[in-house]
């Protein structure tokens, strides 16, 4: 199976909160990242969390990490139509010969 | 500060031809990684360069190669193109090898093989 898994689609109403979930398998992961990709563009780093943290908040974004269950989530408060994009979860380690792994991405659709 | 620049943005090539894609990392970044993105396979790691040396290579055939120059700019080359090579090729840079701050991506080169 894949090392990083995400659901493919999420649809929310403008103004609601969005929660995008991700599970990973490598317990040695040091950092977990969230990237955003808008149509025709590359990936934009939104935020990241160290594996020794439980939560990180950055304006409308809240990242929660459950290391025991290897579960990561990204909550977007007050979701706007401009938040419509594909969101990728990724895990990585510093140093050594290690290939960072990305999930397949979750398409977030925000409708009025 | 300029971001990661990839050229060209779009390419159309014929089967059997070869292609070279270019990536200029953020000024001061020394690590450059390449990814292939397709609807079916998602993001697949190609290779990572640091200080002009390939540090890691993904599971791609030898037709895919790359290099990094002393100014950290990187190129990747695909020889004997196949239809299945059609994809968005993304370059990402990082300050250091496996830097903890995550990667900054360029907008990609969209390659279409006909």
What is the element layout, followed by pairings?
The complex is a heterodimer of chains A (112) and B (114).
Chain A: E1 4-6, E2 9-13, E3 18-24, E4 31-37, E5 43-50, E6 55-58, E7 61-66, E8 71-76, E9 85-92, E10 101-102, E11 106-111
Parallel strand pairs in A: 2-11
Antiparallel strand pairs in A: 1-3, 3-8, 4-5, 4-9, 6-7, 7-8, 9-10, 9-11
Chain B: E1 5-7, E2 10-13, E3 19-24, E4 31-38, E5 42-50, E6 53-57, E7 64-68, E8 74-78, E9 87-94, E10 104-105, E11 109-113
Parallel strand pairs in B: 2-11
Antiparallel strand pairs in B: 1-3, 3-8, 4-5, 4-9, 5-6, 7-8, 9-10, 9-11
* Poorly predicted residue ranges of chain A: none
Largest interface: A-B, 27 and 25 residues
> Separation of termini of chain B?
37 Å
Q: What are the secondary-structure elements of chain A, in order, as H or E?
A: EEEEEEEEEEE
Distance between the termini of chain A: 36 Å
Q: How many individual helices of chain A? A: 0
Structure classification of chain A: mainly beta
| Helical residue percent band of chain A | under 10%
Based on secondary structure, the structural category of chain B is mainly beta
The radius of gyration of chain B is 13 Å
Roughly how many Å is the radius of gyration of chain A? 14 Å
* Major beta-sheet overview of chain A: 6 strands, mixed
Describe the structure.
The complex is a heterodimer of chains A (112) and B (114). Chain A has no helices and 11 strands. The termini of chain A are far apart. In chain A, 0% of the residues lie in helices and 55% in strands. Chain B is mainly β and 114 residues long. Chain B is 0% helix and 53% strand. Chain B contains no helices and 11 strands. In chain B, the strands form 2 sheets. In chain B, strands 2, 4, 5, 6, 9, 10 and 11 form a 7-stranded mixed beta sheet that branches. A 4-stranded antiparallel beta sheet of chain B has the order 1-3-8-7, with no helix packed on it. Chain B is globular, with a radius of gyration of 13 Å. Classes of the chains: A mainly beta (112), B mainly beta (114).
């Amino acid at each position: 199976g894949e090392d990083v898994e995400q659901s493919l689609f999420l649809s929310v109403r403008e103004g609601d909160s969005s929660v995008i979930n991700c599970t990973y398998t490598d317990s040695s992961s040091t950092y977990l990242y969230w990237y955003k990709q808008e149509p025709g563009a590359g990936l934009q780093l939104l935020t990241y969390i160290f594996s020794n943290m439980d939560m990180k908040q950055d304006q409308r974004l809240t990242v929660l990490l459950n290391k025991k269950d290897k579960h990561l989530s990204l909550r977007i408060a007050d979701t706007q139509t401009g938040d419509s994009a594909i969101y990728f979860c990724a895990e990585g380690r510093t140093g050594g010969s290690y290939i960072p792994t990305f999930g397949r991405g979750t398409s977030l659709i925000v409708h009025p | 500060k300029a971001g990661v620049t990839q050229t060209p943005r779009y390419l159309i090539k014929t089967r059997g031809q070869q292609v070279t894609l270019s990536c200029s990392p953020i000024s001061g970044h020394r690590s450059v990684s390449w990814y292939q993105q397709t609807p079916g396979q998602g993001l697949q790691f190609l290779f990572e360069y640091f200080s002009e040396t390939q540090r890691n290579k993904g599971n791609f055939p030898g037709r895919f190669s790359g290099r990094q120059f002393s100014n950290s700019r990187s190129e990747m080359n695909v020889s004997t193109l196949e239809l299945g090579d059609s994809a968005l090729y993304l370059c990402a840079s990082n300050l250091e090898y496996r830097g903890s701050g995550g990667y900054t991506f360029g907008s990609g080169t969209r390659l279409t093989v006909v």
